[in-house]
Design a protein that fits this description.
alpha/beta, 307 residues, 5-stranded parallel β-sheet
Length: 307
C-alpha cells in the first residue's frame, strides 16, 4: 500500500506595508521555501491542484492586490489548515505606525492606501483593515525595532529546521595575473607551492589531471597548507552559518590559475563536502580557456574529486 506524502508546509506572510514582508519572503526562500510574493488570493488554491508541491511554500499576501479581501484571506487560511493537516501558518509582521511613517519618509514612496492623501492616513487605514488578520495570526512578529538582520534571526528561530538549506560554499580557482575575482569573501594564495608550469611534460596539463595532482602533492608543504585551510574553515563556516549568511565564496589563486590553485580547490572542496557542507566548484581561468565548464558545479560525487 503506497504511503501518502507528508503535507507540505505553507506560510502566509502579511502585515502592513513597510513592516518587512519582502525581507521575510527572502529569508524563507533562503531557508528552502518556494517563495511567491504578492500572489492573487484566487491563484493560491491552484498551487495544490495536480501533483502536490515538493517544497514548503511561503506566500506573500499584499492588501494592494486587486482581489484582496479580508474574508477571502481568512477563509483561505482555514482551508489551508485543513488541507495541510495543520501545517499552514499565518505569519503577521506588525510595526508601530510612527515607525512605518519614518520608513516611508526615508524611502519617499507613496503609501499604497493613501493615493493623494498623507501617508499617516494610509497607514492607519491599512492597520485597521488588517486588524482581524493580526488577531488570527499564528505567529506575530513586531518589527518596530528590528533590523533586517534581527528579523532574519527571528524567522530562523521559527522556521529553520533540519531540512532547511544549509550555507552554500562556492570555491573557485583563479589566476593572479588576471586579478582576484569580484565578490569573493576570502582568498588563499598557493603560489608558494612547487609550480608544474616549469615541467615541460606538465605545462599543458591542468590541475584536473592526475600527473599534475601527483606533482603538487609531492611538495610536502601542501599537506600542511590544506590542514591549515580546512582547520580555519572548520571554525569559520559554522560561525558564518550561525550569523545567517546563505552563501560564502572562497577564491584560491596561483600565478596562472591552471595547476596549483586547481589542485588545492579540488582538495578543499572534497574535505568540505565530506564534512556535510553544500559545496560548488568553479575554475575561472580554465573556463576562460575552454578547458573547464563556465560557472560553478555543485559537488555531488566525491569520487570524482582529486584524491
Amino acid at each position: 500500500m503506497a504511503t501518502q506524502p507528508d503535507p507540505v508546509r505553507v506560510v502566509l506572510v502579511t502585515g502592513p506595508s513597510g513592516a518587512g514582508r519582502s525581507t521575510a519572503i527572502n529569508v524563507l526562500e533562503d531557508l528552502g521555501f518556494e517563495a511567491i510574493d504578492n500572489i492573487p488570493l484566487r491563484m493560491i488554491p491552484r498551487l495544490f491542484e495536480g501533483e502536490p508541491p515538493t517544497h514548503p511554500l511561503a506566500l506573500g499576501i499584499d492588501v494592494r492586490n486587486r482581489d484582496f479581501s479580508l474574508s477571502r484571506l481568512l477563509d483561505l487560511h482555514d482551508d489551508l489548515v485543513r488541507q495541510t493537516d495543520g501545517h499552514a501558518t499565518l505569519l503577521y509582521l506588525d510595526c508601530r505606525p510612527d515607525i512605518l511613517l519614518r520608513r516611508y519618509s526615508e524611502t519617499r514612496r507613496r503609501h499604497p492606501m493613501a493615493q493623494g492623501e498623507t501617508p499617516e492616513i494610509g497607514i492607519a487605514r491599512e492597520i485597521e483593515l488588517l486588524g482581524p488578520v493580526e488577531t488570527r495570526a499564528d505567529i506575530l512578529i513586531d518589527t518596530s525595532h528590528l533590523s533586517p538582520h534581527d528579523l532574519k534571526a527571528e524567522l530562523h528561530q521559527w522556521f529553520a529546521d533540519a531540512s532547511s538549506q544549509k550555507l552554500s560554499v562556492a570555491l573557485q580557482s583563479f589566476s593572479y595575473k588576471r586579478g582576484i575575482p569580484h565578490g569573493v569573501d576570502m582568498v588563499f594564495d598557493c603560489r608558494f607551492l612547487a609550480n608544474p608550469h616549469w615541467e615541460p611534460g606538465l605545462r599543458n596539463q591542468t590541475g584536473l589531471d592526475a600527473d599534475v595532482q601527483d606533482f603538487v602533492a609531492n611538495d610536502s608543504r601542501l599537506t600542511v597548507f590544506l590542514s591549515k585551510i580546512t582547520e580555519m574553515l572548520a571554525f569559520l563556516l559554522p560561525e558564518v552559518d550561525r550569523e545567517g549568511k546563505t552563501h560564502v565564496s572562497i577564491g584560491i589563486g596561483c600565478t596562472g590559475g591552471q595547476h596549483r590553485s586547481v589542485v588545492v580547490t579540488e582538495r578543499v572542496a572534497r574535505t568540505l563536502a565530506e564534512q556535510g557542507w553544500r559545496v560548488s566548484i568553479g575554475h575561472k581561468e580554465l573556463a576562460r580557456r575552454g578547458m573547464a565548464p563556465a560557472g560553478n558545479a555543485v559537488v555531488t560525487d566525491l569520487g570524482g574529486l582529486a584524491k
